[in-house]
């Protein structure tokens, strides 16, 4: 899945382990953003309340078999009145996690609009996006291909690397795999930017 950037050989092993990546978690209210964050933080289910402002946590995640990476997550409230804030949280971010509720068919169009809006901002050009198709445990959840279509992923800018990951945040299924993909995309982008700089 994705635009192909995530299919190249990972270079994780050659990088120092003290790196910290700035990641913003976005998505409509009730998609499961805070559940994702606290499932990663405590590795257990935490009862959430609607996020009024934002939650922020630095979390060490072991990727692959041994590499530990620190992510600094910003979980920004998804209610309509809070969405204008998304722009300032994504300034200089390394990656975006966009959480969608796989059973909320009525609001998929709204999720699509917000996803395309935030990725089209000039500062976010080329910033990798992990789209989390959450709540896959529910019987009536949409399939990945249906979500890909409804979010119009084919219309995503070709400069934006992305990966669509099925998850169940309440038990943590798929979260680590998604983060590994996001990390790979971030590393590849950094390498590409460094090469472009050298050529200049
Ligand atoms: P938000 O931060 O995006 O607004 P929350 O969303 O993390 O607060 O989650 C909203 C509701 O969705 C919560 O239920 C939460 O338990 C539930 N949820 C989150 N992830 C999953 C999942 O993978 N599967 C299922 N079945 N539910 C999930 P409540 O009942 O507290 O509103
Ligand atoms: Mg929340």
TrEMBL record:
Compartments where located: Cell membrane; Cytoplasm; Nucleus, Nucleolus
Cellular component per GO, a single term: cytoplasm
Principal location: membrane
Classification via InterPro entries: P-loop_NTPase, Small_GTP-bd, Small_GTPase_ARF, Small_GTPase_ARF/SAR
SUPFAM superfamilies registered for this protein in UniProt: P-loop containing nucleoside triphosphate hydrolases
GO molecular function: GTP binding; GTPase activity; metal ion binding
Binding residue positions for GTP: 27-34, 78, 134-137
Keyword NADP belongs to the record: no
Residues that bind Mg(2+): 34, 51
Xref: Pfam families: Arf
Keywords: Cell membrane, Cytoplasm, GTP-binding, Lipoprotein, Magnesium, Membrane, Metal-binding, Myristate, Nucleotide-binding, Nucleus
Quaternary structure (record): Interacts with CYTH2. Interacts with KPNA2; the interaction is direct. Does not interact with ARL4A.
Protein role: Small GTP-binding protein which cycles between an inactive GDP-bound and an active GTP-bound form, and the rate of cycling is regulated by guanine nucleotide exchange factors (GEF) and GTPase-activating proteins (GAP). GTP-binding protein that does not act as an allosteric activator of the cholera toxin catalytic subunit. Recruits CYTH1, CYTH2, CYTH3 and CYTH4 to the plasma membrane in GDP-bound form.
UniProt-recorded name of the protein: ADP-ribosylation factor-like protein 4A
């Amino acid at each position: 899945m994705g635009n192909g950037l995530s299919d190249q050989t990972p270079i994780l092993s050659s990088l120092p382990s003290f790196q910290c990546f700035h990641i913003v978690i976005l998505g409509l209210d009730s998609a499961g953003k805070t559940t994702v964050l606290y499932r990663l933080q405590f590795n257990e289910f935490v009862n959430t309340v609607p996020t009024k402002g934002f939650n922020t946590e630095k979390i060490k995640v072991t990727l692959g078999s041994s590499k530990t990476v620190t992510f600094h997550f910003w979980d920004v409230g998804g209610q309509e009145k809070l969405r204008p804030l998304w722009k300032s949280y994504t300034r200089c971010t390394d990656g975006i996690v966009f959480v969608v509720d796989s059973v909320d068919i009525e609001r998929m169009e709204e999720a699509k609009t917000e996803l395309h809006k935030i990725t089209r901002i000039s500062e976010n050009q080329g910033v990798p996006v992990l789209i989390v198709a959450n709540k896959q445990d529910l019987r009536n959840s949409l399939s990945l291909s249906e979500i890909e279509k409804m979010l119009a992923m084919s219309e995503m800018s070709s400069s934006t690397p992305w990966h669509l990951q099925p998850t169940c945040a309440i038990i943590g299924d798929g979260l680590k795999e998604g983060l590994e993909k996001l990390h790979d995309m971030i590393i590849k982008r950094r390498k590409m930017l460094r090469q472009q700089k050298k050529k200049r």
